[in-house]
Structures are given as C-alpha cells and as structure tokens.
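Q: How would the structure tokens look for this protein?
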Amino acid sequence: MSTEVRVPALGESVTEATVATWFKKPGDAVAVDEMLCELETDKVTVEVPASVAGTLGEIVAAEGETVGVNALLATISEGEGAAPAPAAAAKEDAPAAAEAPKGHIDVPVPSLGESVTEATVASWFKKVGDTVEADEMIAELETDKVSVEVPAPQAGTIAKLLVEEGGTVQAGGILAELSAEGAAAPAPKAEAPAAAPAAASGSKDVENAPSANKMMAEKGLTADQVTGTGRDGRIMKEDVMKAAAAPKAAAPAPAAPRAPSPAEDAAREERVKMTRLRQTIARRLKDAQNTAAMLTTYNEVDMKAVMDLRKKYKDEFEKKHGVRLGFMSFFTKACIHALKEVPEVNAEIDGTDVVYKNFVHMGVAAGTPTGLVVPVIRDADQMSFAGIEKKIGEMGKKARDGKLSMAEMQGGTFTISNGGVYGSLMSSPILNPPQSGILGMHKIQDRPVVVNGEIVIRPMMYLALSYDHRIVDGKGAVTFLVRVKEALEDPQRLLMDL
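A: Here is the predicted structure in token form.
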C-alpha cells in the first residue's frame, strides 16, 4: 500500500513554497511523524512529517523546486515490517540520548519561538573540559528572527560538543553533554588562593554578555579594548557600542601608494557567513524587486504645526498616559486617514484577485543590531494616539531585545519606515511584500520656504511613497501622499476627518 506525502497548509495568503531540504532518500525507513523534508516560504519554514510508518518511495519534488499547496511531494510504501525496525531502533536509542552515559547530562536546544524549527550555533562560550556553573551561558544560537542563549542545566564539566559553530540544530535537539562528575571542580579554587588573582586578572571567571561578544566580533574589537561596566567587570553590549564610537588614535602617515597584490588584499579580508535573518531579508527584498512594478513618488511636509502641537501638550500627554508623545503616532494617524481615501494602497494582489483590507495593520520598520525587522501594530485604525505610542514603544523594545515572535511580524497591510533617525534626507523605501505601499520618513531640516509670499525658515521633511504600480495608479499614489501632507500640516483635519 502506498501513501502520498503532500504540501501542508502554508499560512494566510501563502500559496507556494520551495523544497529546501530532504532529510530522507528513497528506500529509507521512516517512522510516524518523522520529518521527511523542509519547505521554505517568504514568511516561514515548514517541516513535513511522515503520516505513516514505512519506506520512502519516489521523491516527486526535488530540492529547489517550487510547489503549491497540496502538491505531491513523495510517496511512502507501507510494507509489513518496513517501519517497525527503525521505530524499535529509535526507541532503543531514545534512552541513550535522554540519559547519555552514566553521570552525563544532556544540554538541549531551548525553545526557539513560535513556528521556528531550527537554529544555527553562532558561538560556543565553553570548550570540552571547561567547568560550568548551573545557568551559566555556554552557547548562543541564531534563528532567522532572534538570538537565543543556552544555559547549562546544572553545574559540571563540558564532556562533548555535539554540534560545531555554524552547524544547524533542530528544536528539541541536543547540543552538548555535561559530566556531572565535574560539578565538584570549583572546590579546588578555594584551596588555591594564589591562583585566584591571576584568574581574575585574566577575566576568565567573568562571562561577557553574549550580545557583547557578538558585537565585538562585528566591530573588530577585543575584550582588552572595552571597559566592562557590568557586575564583576562583565562587558555589556552598551560598553562595546561606547568603545566602537570612541575616537581612534591618529593613524600614521600612509606610505607611498602602490598596487596591492590580490593575495595581500585577501589576507586583510574577513569572510563571515550571513545570519539567517540577513539571508531572509536579502531574499524578501529581492523578491519584492522582481515581483512588484515598484515606483516612488515624493513630497515634502512642513512639520511646524505638528511640532508646535507636540510641544504644547507633550508634558500633559505623558502625565496622563504614561508615554511620551512622539512623531510616529501623527504619521500613523495621517496614513490611516489617507488609506481610507485611497484603499488600493492598503490592498494586496493574490493571483488574479485584489484583496482590499477593511482594517489597518500598520508595520513600523525597526533597525536592530542583527538587521531590519517590521513589527506590526494590529488594528491601528482603532487606536488612540496614546495607544499607538505605547504599542510602538513596546514593539520597539522587543525588536531590540530580539524577543519578537513570528506572529508579531505577520499580517501587516502597510508599512512606515523612518530613515530620518539615521540622518537620511531622501531615499526610496522598498516594498514589504505582499503589501502595496510603504511610506518613507526622513530627517527634519530647517529650510527656507515661501509662505504667503514671504520667505520663512520652516522645519521641513521629505516624504517618499513607494507603491506597486500593478495595483496603485500614479493618481492614487500622489493623492495618498498629498493627504498625508495635508493632515500633518493641519493636524486638526485628523480630528474633523477631513
């Protein structure tokens, strides 16, 4: 008897996926719920389990092929005695994996977050033979969304590292083994006080923050170039940022220029594998360029009215609502107002259909040390200024801490990106598919403008709307941006719904 293996449901508005990896080959025995292959969509990674035990037959969709929902992937032959053998073997192996050798403790992969099934080992902070304390950080994992620290389940000695740096681990897998016999190792430290100062001076007993180690590697800094402000001199991420921003010593006068050889250049290069998050960002942005007919229209807005209104009410606003009044709530409200008049900017293309959204899930792009993410403020059109400010603050903190879940970054209908916080004066934002529009904010700069026939100095900002011309016409795009401009230059229009 043969059972078909088909593509499972891929999520809201996702109609196809790419076969990323086959974990089995034809002829391999498989157990019920054993993972057969992995699919990738533009949003998530999906694992395909075996629904029955048996032997994997023909693989219909090879690695790299694109498949639709419910497409045939492979077949499983349910032969008598075909599945029990590997299942029994798995059961025999299970106690060994769970218990490990006598006196050994497994270090498991911690929870990776909703719908995240695998991670890459970014760094090992310990090596075989090192002693560790309970809950001491021994490794850092990276997923395509967040970084995850791995603590030691109890005190002991690192007996074996099962996955090397750069290796991929599955959720629930085992990373290393600890020897419980090494738990007594810290005792000799008390008997050898003479060795303690040397260890302290070498900072071997102080574990730096994993995020600090990662940033030092990125910035090309060593621990002796950074002053730690954490407990016992622990180096924190903020310490690395300060050291990186500190002025460097004047460089010696350069020697007479000469053409370097390729070998000399190669010796000074550094090759670093892209993180999963950066790979996902690169793929999605390139897909947006390849798929959408993307254009950008520009305008400028006089921010004086918003700045005056904010200055007048910011103290009272913060006292009442417990959150500062920023510019993002004004821009969010202005975009919501404009989206009601030009609904195609809040729509998306699904095959040959246009899907209009009668709600606004506002994406707010946020820069993090590992890359750009876009948390989504759901039903922003139903929120007050205070509600929007609180949600933006909450999501921004989660983004910086790497704590955003997959659900908090899905379902957006329109996006706002603020390049002005980095000093950008003008840019063309790229669409966040499958959305049809994204607003780019920029730096506020005093410029001379003509108002009522007179030249005056006003705080001006350039605005950019990138849109998908397949669904949004030029007239609609320009109208949208003009409505945003009008609402910001006269904020009372938002209250009057004009």
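The chain has a mean pLDDT of 80.

The radius of gyration is 28 Å.

Upvote if useful.
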